[in-house]
Amino acid sequence: MHQYSQGISTKQAHKAIPEGCFEEEQGLKGFFGPVSHLIKKDPSTRWEIIDGPLKPRMFDLVPKFSQVGEQRLLFNKDVSIGLKVVPVSANNSKTAYRNADGDQLYFCHLGCGVILTEYGLLPYSEGQYVVIPKCLTHSIVPTEASQFLTVENRTSHYEEPDRGLVGRHAIYDTAALGKPNLEKMQEFLNAQSNETIEIRVKRLDQITRFEYDRSIYDTVGWKGDLFPFTLHTDDMMPLMSHRAHLPPSAHTTFVAREFVICTFLPRPLESDEDALKVPFYHQNIDYDEVLFYHKGDFFSRDNLHAGMMSLHPAGFPHGPHPKAVKSIKGKTHTSEYAVMIDTRWPLEVDPSSQSLELADYWKSWQSK
Ligand SMILES: [Fe+2]
Fold this sequence. Notes:
By secondary structure, this protein is mainly beta. It is about 5% helix and about 35% strand. The chain is built from 3 helices and 22 strands.
């Protein structure tokens, strides 16, 4: 379709929005497809009633993070989003885990430790992604009790984003990826008495237990381009334009076939006088959007704390809360750390996470 406009329009998206008006982006294919910008007198988030299943949802995961174990929160056929809490225990290294349902991504929300793998030892700490490709055997051994957001990729494999015009070292340099260390793994195994003799394999969400007579971590060397790795948010370099707000897709960290993972990190705000500084109101029409709030001051939202997770399904417009629009005026930087998962197909809420839901979240855009 060719470009067309009527009435008031801007010559650059997210910039010089007429005083007293609001811009709403409606776009296909996750910020890459056909898109229009509507200039409106009021934001579309000023609903008074939403009657039906399509509501923005908010979950407070903090109570769940205080319980050991794992829980699925949201899912569709491509992705399963959940949380996992691992305590410090001498038994952690006795058992290994293998996910035969897909690539397993852990985002460490709190805690630190090491992950044992057949490829070597991977240290992790708060704010770090750990990517374990499908079926690679591993054991999480925290030195401090650890809380993870987990994202299982069930229909493809995690890949790096296409960095296009900004070149292959933008966003993060692959030299900054944490690689497994076989020598450190050997030192770790020598220093401890437990041998890892059990592997729990998950396939079609059912566990099969394999038991061995001696340690399964017996690799003496390896080569190849399939291995687990880590990426710390400290090693990520957010893209920005000082002149106009960039879409969330500029912050893509990992790409799967039917979903993407983006990371929002502290950055300077746009400095042009007429630039929009809060995320624009939008309908990312093809995608459901999940945001996990890891740390900091969540500048586009009100009444949020770390450990919360929102689900904004496709089908309704969303954008900053009214309070955030006012409070952004005195700010020059963001300090938020958040993980976003945008899924191509609708997500379902796991029944067990309904107890974590804040029922009135959909009302939170209303000016008080
Ligand atoms: Fe969005």
